[in-house]
Amino acid sequence: MQTFGEAVELASSCPLPQAVGDVAERHISDDLLKVLRTERLKAPDTLQVAPYQATPVCGAITHHHAAGLHIPDEERPEEERMAAINETIQKYEKKLAERTKHHMGYPYNLDFDFGALEGLTRYSINNLGDPFIESNYGVHSREFEVGVLNWFARLWEIDEEEYWGYITNCGTEGNLHGILVGRENLPDGILYASRETHYSIFKAARMYRMDAVKVSTLETGEIDYAELEASLKANAGRPAIINVNIGTTVKGAVDDLDRVLDILKATGYTEDRFYIHCDGALFGMMMPFLKQAPMVTFRKPIGSVSVSGHKFLGAPVPCGVVITRFRHVLALSSDVEYLNSRDATIMGSRNGHAPLYLWYTLTRKGYAGIARDVERCMRNAHTLKSMLDQAGVKTMLNELSNTVVFERPREEAFVRKWQLACEGDIAHVVVMPNIDIAKLEEFVQDYISSRARVAIAAAKRVAADARAAEAESGDGDDDSA
Amino acid sequence: MQTFGEAVELASSCPLPQAVGDVAERHISDDLLKVLRTERLKAPDTLQVAPYQATPVCGAITHHHAAGLHIPDEERPEEERMAAINETIQKYEKKLAERTKHHMGYPYNLDFDFGALEGLTRYSINNLGDPFIESNYGVHSREFEVGVLNWFARLWEIDEEEYWGYITNCGTEGNLHGILVGRENLPDGILYASRETHYSIFKAARMYRMDAVKVSTLETGEIDYAELEASLKANAGRPAIINVNIGTTVKGAVDDLDRVLDILKATGYTEDRFYIHCDGALFGMMMPFLKQAPMVTFRKPIGSVSVSGHKFLGAPVPCGVVITRFRHVLALSSDVEYLNSRDATIMGSRNGHAPLYLWYTLTRKGYAGIARDVERCMRNAHTLKSMLDQAGVKTMLNELSNTVVFERPREEAFVRKWQLACEGDIAHVVVMPNIDIAKLEEFVQDYISSRARVAIAAAKRVAADARAAEAESGDGDDDSA
């Protein structure tokens, strides 16, 4: 069996399985030949590696083919239809409640109560286009959106008049936007990001046809600063667009922004020749509330910051915030020939409920309330680590992180019960505000029991093999006497 | 004053105003100089052209600066906070109700009742990644999503096993995906789309660094087939990625798919050298239910179709559906070096409530219910056109459309009251299922009154000028006697 260190290494390096589809496929003739979806998705039954779609998929993809609920084409009486619908929804709601209760793996805060906003789902709220220019569509929530954006501008220290931003559909959209703004300002720029960066950053590079450099990582998951420096030096002729991780997906590692800025200075990149996007996903929302943490601030020469809204704050729908400098965004919205539009967002129509959720949470909790949530999560993460350590489980917890990394459980049922995000041979628990000590206790007890079951089964297999070997050779003790 | 024909022409040709920002700006030095947002957005007070952010902005952008609701930083007692929040929400809900009632301009069906799903907003439902591969995050709605996708696959005649698709955040995401799939399969392809195409298509070309050809349009708003043919001939050396509009945004014009296919054949493009994306936004959801309409179907050699979910079907959040051939999507999900992921969506985290809204509406209404909605909308669109015609207003209504185009009202207050989408000198009403004859009657009466006020004011200005001229020359009739 692998050591824990080897597993951590593996998680960042193992290649994509062949089962996913081979590149050659796209060059074959296009004469409407049939390529069947389920055949392609099927992975060997012997492999049971769980997919974590928010990080690079590693190892084989298990099938878990989602079956669709059939929608009947024929007409049925209203009453019959509604009865069937209500039954389906009731069953579904029970599943949601159970799955929400047993959840440890993803960085989502599932503890929220938006009861006060419930009546608003009767309206089709759409903030289409720019948050700062009202469109004629009156059913919008721009006043809430701009309020939330102003709050984040204060958090990241940029004047209201100097920023531009919007509430996105998720962390990926914030990253896609940040990298696009970087490319539009430095069209010949090379993208630099560490190999443990969220995959949306490299997705952006591919979408935008940018040259990208994948930089190695340190054991902690931070970018390898020496390698970054060497790479910047080697490509000194072209501008740099750098993604700085404020908490990686798997290990919660924070790239050191100040050190990256020092490296840029040392390698001769002036401020007009680099653009930094900070991917704050989860931790970008927590770090400003930690006293000892380095500051992500627009007082430093960064270009954009994005965070998710459904992660630390929690929301029924995925959402996020991206803030950039207004002068940067002009490059996106001003091109007559192509865009012919003032809309600098990635999406056109935009979910108007998301700003309401964020506004509500920020207003209700306030700065002090969020700070309390952050402190409790950090404390509970250390409690989880200590519990696992004391129980003899190898763990890792970065100083600036609420993501506890540990050996991947071997029982698939356990992984699925607790909805653990796994990569290679490691798993993690992200200690969010909805996870209290009682839940951690239940989880650790369950984890140790699962390990014991696996260990006992392994030992028993050895015994069974030995017994079989003895029986074959005929020289064992005879139980049949 | 312009003629109506001139205005229609103008709407498609007028350049972006200088106020929006000039291209030169992005090349200036990057020494953190201040560029202030509101200064940039301010348009001359005399210009009152309303922006329609879902189409290319034309004419000056009016300011309409959205003010943010302040989120206090200081701590306040729970009771005080909740009282303030509830007061804000109650006031906001009244605004939403009023704005929903007076709405004519955007193709959104505001008539829906998702009361049966209300309890589900307590859950953070997220279908992250591929709809067909379950992730370990258990709080998802893939069974509903795949059910909806299968329904659309039946509608557009593609086998369940041969399609791939997902529920998007909006029409734009469907277009971004369709064009990306086209580019990944034909990396050297040139994008062709008509000038009245939704701006997201040209946004895609710019994002993806593709060469794009903007083809002229006929009077109806359809693509100019002769110009398309000439352009395809001139670029015969490179593959073609063609966007076909199933209803343009402003005039509801439907590009003739069969004619485009004939042109491709005539100009020597074999099926492996073109990719067709059908932008179905609103009308792609209506056309299959009209007997005389040409079919959008995967039995023809098209690559992808997208529609919006919040448009014809109606939903509290913007959403949409994109369907493509599974074999095409392999090009997106298979590249190890860049993506290292099985996720072929544009977004990573995906709103899990949107599939529930679509599933609910499709199941409740059924095929027959949707057909009835479509028929009523088409009938009411003709009623609106006849009412305006009879009242002496110039109108336009394409045969396959529920979008009635007419002269732009001159009173800004009227435009804003009814939330009309305007472009240049034309406005339109999209007759959606929530608009009945009584509402059309109210609207037309209001429109004619507004026109009369403007006409009377214009006549009075002439009289006042004449009176002033007389007074100056001293030879008028003397009222002071």
From TrEMBL, chains A, B:
Q: Which GO terms describe its biological process?
A: carboxylic acid metabolic process
GO molecular function annotation: histidine decarboxylase activity; pyridoxal phosphate binding
Its cofactor is: pyridoxal 5'-phosphate
Q: Which PROSITE patterns match?
A: DDC_GAD_HDC_YDC
UniProt cross-references to Gene3D superfamilies, sorted A to Z:
Aspartate Aminotransferase, domain 1 (3.90.1150.10), Type I PLP-dependent aspartate aminotransferase-like (Major domain) (3.40.640.10)
Q: Does the keyword NAD apply?
A: no
Q: One Pfam family, short name please?
A: Pyridoxal_deC
On this chain, the residues bearing N6-(pyridoxal phosphate)lysine are 311
Q: Which controlled-vocabulary keywords does the entry list?
A: Decarboxylase, Lyase, Pyridoxal phosphate
Q: What is its EC number?
A: 4.1.1.22
- Give the protein family: Belongs to the group II decarboxylase family.
- Name by which UniProt lists this protein: Histidine decarboxylase
Q: Which organism is it from?
A: Monoraphidium neglectum
Query: Which lineage is the organism of this entry classified under, starting from the top rank?
Result: Eukaryota, Viridiplantae, Chlorophyta, core chlorophytes, Chlorophyceae
